[in-house]
Design brief:
By secondary structure, this protein is of the alpha/beta class. The chain has 14 helices and 16 strands.
Length: 460
Amino acid sequence: MITNKTFDEINIGDSAGTQRVLTKQDIDLFGFLSGDMNPTHFSDKYAQMLLERHKLVGHSMWGGALISSLLGNDLPGPGTVYQSQQFEFHNALELGDTIIITVNVISKNAADGSVIFDCRAVNQRDEIIITGIAKVKAPTQKPTDVRSTYTPLQLWDKTAFNRLIDHVKNWDRVPTAVCHPCGKEALEGTIDAALNNLIEPILVGPEAKIRALAESMNLDISSYRLVNAVHSHDAATKAVALCRSGEARALMKGSLHTDELMSAVVPSATGLRTERRISHIFAMDVPTYPRPLFITDAAINIYPTLEDKVDILKNAIQLAHALNIPQPKVAILSAMETVNPKIPSTIEAAALCKMADRGQITGAVIDGPLAFDNAISKEAALIKGIRSPVAGEADILLVPDLEAGNMLAKQLTYLSKADSAGIVIGAKVPIILTSRADSAEARMASCAVAAAFAHWVHEK
């Protein structure tokens, strides 16, 4: 409820406090809003060159803004008017640090209704970050609408992949054949995943090219096995062979085209095929959606048949189980939520639901056809009068074809700022299948998903 302390209610010695962890999102948003794009806040390279501790640091005024929010939200609270603020900045606040802020009333002036606060911010090591003095004009009245709820703007904190990485890195590293890591992002993502204890990489590709790239990026790859290959096709063949022999328990795409890698995976005699159809799954952390979202298939099966979709669905359910979602909710997407003989995807959705009813597909709650809005928005489903145990709570989106899935996943990535991990299931080993345009962070997230799945399969 809206509340504050009026001038008459405030006493000398009153105090308020708050604390916050500095995230990369905080740095990015503050830089965007303030226009302060100093590279020490955004570039690891500059931070290593210019700063004593070689870590990204937050904007000094980000801490100052938190002091302002404490005065405006808590003490005195709504109705407070800033009159002046003096700051001294003592130490930098590094990425991941916790800032603890306190404000204390040190004087009042009844003539003009002003209150003076001593302001202080320290980090989790009790190092002083900010000290200062604030002068505000305190409110003189209480809020009149006591039914109103004070709800500050909140942005979804994208932490799903971070939690997964923290969880998986405590296990044994998964031996992973990394095919043709000859691009900056591919090699950097691989080494980051290794340093985070997710995979044990076997680098497969032109040895001289990989070593030269590592040297140019100042990456130490001396402790990793390197299998020489003449070119990308040769690298794909040799990486798949490592997985067939059991030397590697996962396969990772580097800087080569998906078709090149998959052409070595799909042959029955020399590849990694099983009795189940291979399919791709995007595991996505969408800032505006309160749970991880799996989209399938967006990279392998172009126009899947009903039979294909059974395997695609089983693969996605299996991945959800491996990531500790014991009963995922599956929305089978189409352009509408009713069965229409003119739209084949609606008929296939109905057939898949009936197969689930008869026990041919298990381990999930399945409904469809559902349009995208009904799948992810309970409000949209209610407006349309749709009763569904999945609507608004979907964990898995089964798309009609590759084009729909690929466009949906990339829209979420580029328009909704979603983080994504790409993995192929249904082969003898999980395949980390990222785009050549993906960042090193996306590749590391994909490694975490693959490692979790590989450990789950091994336990089973």
